[in-house]
Amino acid sequence: MIGQKIKDNLEKKPNSREMEKFKKDFPQFFSKEGAFKLNIFKDFLSEEEIDISKEGYELKFLGKSYAKYLSSLESETYISPDVEHKSKEENKNSENLYIVGDNIDALKHLLNSYAGKIKCIYIDPPYNTGSDGFIYPDNFQFSVEELSLKIGITEEEAERILDLAGKSTHSAWLTFMYPRLVLARDLLSDDGAIFISIDDNEQANLKLICDEIFGEENFIVDLKWANKEGGGSSDSKLFRVKDEHILVYGKLINNFEIRGLPPSNIERYKESDEYEHTRGKYYLQKLGMGSIQYSESMDYPITMEDGTILYPADNNSGRRAIWRWSKEKYQWGIENDYIVSKQDKEGNWVLYTKQYLNADNNGNLIERTQIPMGIISQFSSTQGSKELSKLGLDGYFSYPKPTFLIKYLINRITGNEFTCLDFFSGSATTAHAVMELNAEDNGKRKYIMVQLPEKIEENKPAYKAGYRTIDEIGRARIEKAAQKIKEETGANMDYGYKLYYLETPEEKTLIDLENFEPEIKFLTKDMIKIFDNEYSSGKGSILTTWLNEDGYGLTKSSSPYILEHYSADLIEKSLYIIDEGLEDEDVMTLIKRIENEELDITRVVVYVHSLRFNVLHELRKNLKVLRNNKNVSLIERF
Prior knowledge:
Layout: H1 3-9, H2 16-25, H3 38-47, H4 64-72, E1 78-81, H5 83-86, H6 89-92, E2 97-100, H7 103-114, E3 118-123, H8 144-151, H9 155-162, H10 170-187, E4 188-198, H11 203-214, E5 219-226, E6 243-250, H12 276-279, E7 282-286, E8 288-289, E9 302-303, E10 309-310, E11 322-323, H13 327-335, E12 339-343, E13 349-356, E14 375-376, H14 381-390, H15 403-410, E15 419-422, H16 429-441, E16 446-451, H17 461-464, H18 470-489, E17 498-503, H19 507-515, H20 538-549, E18 559-562, E19 567-571, E20 574-577, H21 584-595, E21 603-607, H22 613-624, E22 633-637
Helix pairs in contact: 1-19, 4-10, 7-10, 8-9, 10-11, 15-16, 16-18, 21-22
């Protein structure tokens, strides 16, 4: 499960992640030994007449090569489901996720099943203000010499990088953020976007690394959020600051569509008719408009039902008037019920057109909206604190983001059936916002929250209330908000979430896994129970990690599948063998069922620590010589 990743990580370099993606998409530029065919690549560039520039600019900072290296490494953690939490009725079939652990590990796990599937990411990372508690968290496992050799830098630079631990410098913050944003980009769908809250301390640096990671061309906007009420704060000695930034980037900006805001004059759409369910409500606008530039084709007589003949009325300036619609369009309006005629107090006829909210004047259904402003001024930080107070969580967070703000941002994403990710979950405002939006528009948005189990100081109100880590408060907020929404709206929606913990095996276990060779099985300890913890059995953790690694995600479950005596786990085309106890007769039963098409699978995944070598040998041998042209892969993991 982790052993192979440990071995793979020994070979990683700062650009290994990019090279793996490059090899996958452009195998023609590599030999079968993996060597890069530089001349063929140069020929390709020249044929496409690509200008190779030797000049340009980029953001350079201490730790950048190490940050890239971190993004290339595989996570050496495993995913442990909280079985008791999952068994609760509201959580059994939930498609929402809450992951407790370091977010860089969570992002790496999520990439296995959710790459390219997240349409909306919102994060509120540490601002590096000097007072927000941010310090670079990495506990370096390298000596100066090892790090220098590993990422190809001088020992002097390696020493300076190692010195970042526990610091809150710009370089420390950028080294922290860079790999997380690299991974986040790969999670975004092609039509997705990321929203990042930040203040002036790191806004300029964040903009530069986002330009590099997401591409300068995919920058959408730097929103200004007027977050403070009253006179603002005295963060600057010369100006009173009342705003923060929200940087917005798309995965591919040409694929991104913005959802506009309701019209500012939406209150005028008051009237309704039999077409309301499709065209929406409407208001009346006069057909005759004396101020329009004169056109002879728009100046024609209209005969009313009592024989009165109407012409567009000239305005007071004497300018010749016209109708707003041509004669042909007027006839279309009559036939499709877009025209209303009324008599005024003097008995004079007045003609109107119906201006529908959800249909234009050509009969096309539309969503009538206006482009959002770059300044958001209707939500304040104070609202976020009040929301927590109403849920009985008063004073647990400083300046939590208001639900209204996150709803506003999520609502700029078109559609209402997609996944939102927040990997700095904090008070879980994003999950709260997703639930409220779903209740309002019958949406099927899902959320994935990730939060480090950061300890709460003993003098804090949350600690005195019984909470010990930040994630506990976030999960309590989700559950309280869900209950409140359910009571107030009764909406038929997903109120639950599945809970997972990222766990790291003991160092001795990692050494055993790294040195293990299935042909020489010498381990005496139970290599399943070593993954037992308070949340789940070792088998549950192994299976959960593998299902996600194989693309099945964290919301699907396998079913038990009985062979002769052994119970394996089946999901779609994959059979998992994890527990000890597989015998030769189970192997033969498996082979027969595959060959006679009783069992339709393409993969058998085994935990080699659980199998006696002779049984593993039989499984290998028989799967290679399946009859009836069957082809089933054997995947061995440790």
